[in-house]
UniProtKB/TrEMBL annotation:
<dbReference type="InterPro" id="IPR003740">
    <property type="entry name" value="YitT"/>
</dbReference>
<keyword id="KW-1003">Cell membrane</keyword>
<feature type="domain" description="DUF2179">
    <location>
        <begin position="228"/>
        <end position="278"/>
    </location>
</feature>
<dbReference type="InterPro" id="IPR051461">
    <property type="entry name" value="UPF0750_membrane"/>
</dbReference>
<dbReference type="GO" id="GO:0005886">
    <property type="term" value="C:plasma membrane"/>
</dbReference>
<feature type="transmembrane region" description="Helical">
    <location>
        <begin position="178"/>
        <end position="196"/>
    </location>
</feature>
<dbReference type="Pfam" id="PF02588">
    <property type="entry name" value="YitT_membrane"/>
</dbReference>
<keyword id="KW-0812">Transmembrane</keyword>
<feature type="transmembrane region" description="Helical">
    <location>
        <begin position="110"/>
        <end position="129"/>
    </location>
</feature>
<feature type="transmembrane region" description="Helical">
    <location>
        <begin position="79"/>
        <end position="98"/>
    </location>
</feature>
<dbReference type="InterPro" id="IPR019264">
    <property type="entry name" value="DUF2179"/>
</dbReference>
<feature type="transmembrane region" description="Helical">
    <location>
        <begin position="44"/>
        <end position="67"/>
    </location>
</feature>
<keyword id="KW-1133">Transmembrane helix</keyword>
<dbReference type="InterPro" id="IPR015867">
    <property type="entry name" value="N-reg_PII/ATP_PRibTrfase_C"/>
</dbReference>
<protein>
    <submittedName>
        <fullName>Membrane protein</fullName>
    </submittedName>
</protein>
<feature type="transmembrane region" description="Helical">
    <location>
        <begin position="12"/>
        <end position="32"/>
    </location>
</feature>
<feature type="transmembrane region" description="Helical">
    <location>
        <begin position="153"/>
        <end position="172"/>
    </location>
</feature>
Length: 281
């Protein structure tokens, strides 16, 4: 039991270190040289760095640690400790790359910097999240506000990001910078989603049919062995049955054809399988 716990902890800290390195490289290689911003407190730290003589790492610690003290009871001790470690490590790594190693810009083009900087930040944040940690205080603020109001955490983070990005207009008066920063944040969100949920090539299908037994047999034979039959009641109090299955996109047309052959009155509801856990996934 202890060995499994230690193995899990080591794995989580490996994810955190890996994520912090990507975050730091994204900031130093792409964002700082091209005066771009990202979301959250990292974006605020970049903004303050551009208008002051202090480093990005300094501002990340200065912004985040007070927020951690305020919100520690909403995070839990373990998560708070990991978040402190993550923030300090990111700050030190950014300053080490920028001030000590003096890494040269990977590219000096705002379009490419917005795209690849967003990818690097997204990869970094995704691995930090996989390590059961957080890289910024906007998450803390979101949790505190959500616990006190009916506002959702995602809405709080969106508001914070919007304030940070658009406040740069007051300082730089550069609309291109704001737009490229927004593009970068969007790419970051996509990168996080792809890493955390995967790129699933599957669909969720709800099949409503009067030929449940026949369709169940054909599905097991030609589509796959897993599925669930759900019983329900229609709007006119008639008994209804529905088959719920998850299938690969390549088998979707086969399922459509089987349904047409067996029950022309049946209908399919098809949706994305955004995330799957269990049975090898």
């Amino acid at each position: 039991m202890i060995e499994k716990y230690l193995e899990g902890e080591i794995k989580e800290y490996f994810f955190i270190v890996f994520g912090c390195l990507f975050l730091a490289l994204g900031v130093v290689w792409f964002f700082i040289p091209n005066a771009l911003l990202t979301g959250g407190t990292a974006g605020l730290a970049l903004l303050l760095h551009y208008i002051s003589s202090f480093s990005v790492g300094f501002w990340m610690v200065a912004i985040n640690l007070p927020l951690l003290v305020i919100g520690i009871k909403y995070l839990g001790k373990k998560f708070a400790i990991k978040t402190v470690i993550t923030i300090i490590f990111i700050s030190l790594t950014i300053d080490f790359f920028a001030e000590v190693l003096k890494l040269q810009p990977f590219v000096e083009d705002r379009v490419l910097a917005a795209i690849f900087g967003g990818i690097f930040i997204g990869i970094g944040l995704a691995f930090v999240i996989k390590g059961n940690s957080s890289a910024g205080g906007s998450t803390i603020v979101a949790r505190v506000v959500a616990s006190k109001t009916e506002i959702k955490p995602a809405q709080v983070i969106l508001i914070i990001d919007s304030i940070i990005i658009f406040s740069s207009l007051l300082i730089f008066k550069d609309t291109q910078q704001v737009l490229y920063s927004i593009v970068s944040i969007y790419i970051t969100v996509i990168a996080i989603d792809k890493i955390l949920t995967g790129n699933l090539n599957k669909k969720v299908v709800h099949l409503v049919t009067n030929e449940v037994e026949t369709m169940s047999k054909l599905i097991k034979e030609k589509i796959g062995p897993y599925g669930t039959i759900i019983s329900g009641v229609g709007l006119y109090n008639e008994d209804k049955k529905m088959i719920l299955i998850v299938i690969e996109v390549t088998k979707l047309q086969l399922l459509r054809q089987l349904v047409k052959e067996v029950d022309k009155d049946a209908f399919l509801i098809i949706s994305e399988a955004n995330e799957m856990l269990g049975r090898g996934n």
